[in-house]
Write a structure and sequence with these properties.
Chains A, B: It catalyses: (2S,6S)-2,6-diaminopimelate + 2-oxoglutarate = (S)-2,3,4,5-tetrahydrodipicolinate + L-glutamate + H2O + H(+). Chains A, B: Pyridoxal 5'-phosphate binds at residues 73, 109-110, 133, 188, 219, 247-249, 258, 293. Chains A, B: Keywords: Aminotransferase, Pyridoxal phosphate, Transferase. Chains A, B: Pathway: Amino-acid biosynthesis; L-lysine biosynthesis via DAP pathway; LL-2,6-diaminopimelate from (S)-tetrahydrodipicolinate (aminotransferase route): step 1/1. The structure is a homodimer of 411-residue chains. Helix content of chain A is 36%, strand content 14%. With 411 residues, chain A is an alpha/beta fold. Chain A has two domains: 7-48 and 310-407, Aspartate Aminotransferase, domain 1, CATH 3.90.1150; 53-307, 3-Layer(aba) Sandwich (Aspartate Aminotransferase, domain 2). In chain A, the strands form four sheets. Chain A has a seven-stranded mixed beta sheet with strand order 2-8-7-6-5-3-4, with helices on both faces. In chain A, β11 and β12 (348-352) form a beta hairpin. The radius of gyration of chain A is 22 Å and the shape is globular. Chain A starts with 16 loop residues before the first helix and ends with a helix. Chains A and B meet through α2, α4, α5, α8 and α9 of A and α2, α4, α5, α8 and α9 of B.
Chain lengths: 411, 411
């Protein structure tokens, strides 16, 4: 006898997308020390925390330093003062009613979208759009819901739903039944969005097939068009089949501060092997109370300040700044004759690489000739081959400069 | 077909220990509104964050508010500036050498001790001491490493190692082979410690049986005796068989601020089904990079300040304050003729309930007659029946007052 590893970990094909990007960028910089490289690859924000957030954050740290106001363990589910704001200002304003115990504060949408699969059985069939945020896939592979990766870059047993220019990036309903469906809209990496009508088809599918939709809405703050839902609960019947993930990372610059939340309505149910239905809300509560210990108190106070009048004004300004960049990227690349997608309801622009060029070839071209770094689409899944992601999270100056350089290339 | 729940969750017998305590306390307070209840139940600190920590914390929040110093995504494993301090000031000083990539910063020892089982196969046998911190048990039950709970309060398939006055709270090596061994020393809840010689027996056992020790050292800062190891790596050969968990919660008051770390030496290995050995360090790294997104930057800066000269002086003072309370509790209860354990290398005092009294009967007695709240030992496992936990985390005044009230009881 000897202690055994979780062998599912051995199935993970480490594409280490961002590590490979960093390696190529470092090598290029070393060989070309004078090159002024502009990075538009990783989806990380650059505008500092709103002043209203900083002020509240520091005041809460001060509370932690005084006997009378010191806070020890908080509720694993998060403080009521933050949950109330979320319910009122993110949901009630859109006509969505939530109870306080349906909202779970956490330290990140990555953590929550990675952990959520734990409350489901191992014998569920998983569906993801392709290209896809790798966490949805890999967290399930590690848990044992797949076989090995095939030659085509897909894990055996998982259902990949292609989203490419061919279908206008609108995922088609699966032909074989699936149990858990990960949808991220506005989408990372393609930057495209789903209309209410399109999302309603998925809700209907889930209701008919006793499936559950895991809806990642981390980018909802970037939505500019009216017919794009900010929350899946804007769709009738979604409360019974959908769990929603939100984050303060992309709307308020919390990527390094860490706060997010997950909504698990009490009506969402899954089944045991006898066919009996169980509400998922107490299961997620059990998962979080056993394996998580709540978000830092000052961080929750900081997140609350995002909803203040001043905070809201500041984050609107930041988002407008990024979306101005997105527009510049869209217009510049379109003018060059490239096919581009996204960037209207999202800070990501998804570029079709020029005829006959792979994602990595285009990456190398932009790096070497324009000193601009983006992300090869193939890194997000097989259907990402032939595409390239550019983010709007740089400064206006750098964005303009990058586009100027790219426009001079002969593509 | 329909989406399935993780049925292992149904096995959890919700003892909801602290919820039941809260329920009884609330009811008593309602019926006796004038009663001045002193709480010595939950293991939560009460002394505010050290001034050095608050100062550094706030300065880091300021950095997050300025373009030039703003921090976005950090490394999932934590910042080097904090890891370096840990290695130098927690380990090198005790002659323990660690590489930077052997230390993983996290948001809590509860999270890490709950998540660590994910990198191991489901077919491992789990051993815990009894009484035990419930997270070790429940995280394994939820993952599927046990059967249902027996009538005696033990999950089928798990190995419980009794630690009671009968064996001087020294766990005996298991008679049947086990794969994963959870040890928490200084112990929660008993407050007892293991000497180097005793811990060395476990390291030897693990080496001989290809087992792994998951060593929770969250309370090491409370050690006062020389022959008690602060780290399991003080034991020769432990680097090959032990993972260690540490936290800033109990030494520096971070229960509401959230920062901890886990040490996974590269030599620690487990086996696949072909008998091939795999280093656990890259497996934990994979788990953390896929399902976690790093600790808040300002919190990591705050944790670094714990290691400053000022920070160290402040935390020593707080610990001395709590340990003075522990001494008062020990002496008072001893004088009453009660058998007490722990409280020398730990902020917990473990009390044998008076002859013929169960843990909950003693709880009700102290609540109703002395208006003092503690924790029934049976809540931590079947071998905790007939014991009671009192914590030293209240104020000196309250601690004295509580002891005075208890000493007047006819026990």
């Amino acid at each position: 006898m000897a202690v055994k590893i979780n062998e599912n970990y051995m199935l993970i094909k480490s594409n280490y997308l961002f590590a490979e990007i960093a390696r190529r960028v470092d090598r290029f910089q070393e060989e070309n020390p004078e090159a002024d490289i502009i990075k538009m690859g990783i989806g990380d924000v650059t505008i500092p925390l709103p002043k209203a957030v900083v002020k509240a954050f520091k005041a809460a740290v001060d509370e932690m330093g005084e006997k009378e106001t010191f806070m020890g363990y908080g509720p694993e589910q998060g403080y009521s003062f933050l949950i109330k704001e979320i319910i009122e200002k993110d949901y009630a304003v859109r006509g969505i009613k939530l109870d306080e115990d349906e909202v779970f504060i956490s330290d990140g949408a990555k953590c929550d979208t990675g952990n959520i699969q734990e409350i489901f059985g191992l014998d569920n069939t998983i569906a993801v759009t392709d290209p896809v945020y790798p966490v949805y896939v890999e967290s399930n592979v590690m848990a044992g819901r797949s076989g090995a990766m095939d030659e085509d870059g897909k894990y055996d047993g998982m259902v990949y739903i292609p989203c490419t220019a061919d279908n206008d990036f609108t995922p088609e309903l699966p032909e074989t039944p699936v149990d858990l469906i990960y949808l991220c809209y506005p989408n990372n990496p393609t930057g495209t969005a789903l209309t209410k009508d399109e999302l309603a088809k998925w809700v209907e599918y889930a209701r008919e097939n006793n499936s559950i939709i895991l809806f990642d809405a981390a980018y909802e703050a970037y939505i500019t068009e009216d017919n794009i839902p900010h929350s899946i609960y804007e769709i009738e019947g979604a409360r019974e089949v959908a769990i929603e993930f939100r984050s303060f990372s992309k709307n308020a610059g919390f990527t390094g501060t860490r706060c997010a939340f997950t909504v698990v309505p009490k009506e969402v149910k899954a089944y045991d092997s006898e066919g009996e239905a169980h509400s998922l809300n107490p299961l997620w509560n059990r998962r979080q109370t056993t394996k998580f210990n709540g978000v830092s108190y000052p961080v929750q106070v900081a997140a609350k300040a995002v909803y203040s009048e001043e905070g809201q004004a500041e984050i609107k300004e930041s988002i407008a700044y990024y979306m101005k960049n997105a527009e510049i990227i869209r217009e510049s690349l379109k003018e060059m004759g490239l096919s581009i997608y996204g960037g209207v309801n999202s800070p990501y622009i998804w570029v079709k690489t020029p005829e006959g060029m792979t994602s990595w070839e285009f990456f190398d071209l932009l790096l070497s000739k324009a000193n601009v770094v983006g992300t090869p689409g193939v890194g997000f899944g097989p259907s990402g081959e032939g595409y390239f992601r550019i983010t709007a999270f740089n400064t206006l100056e750098n964005t303009k400069e990058a586009m100027e350089r790219i426009s001079k290339l002969e593509i």
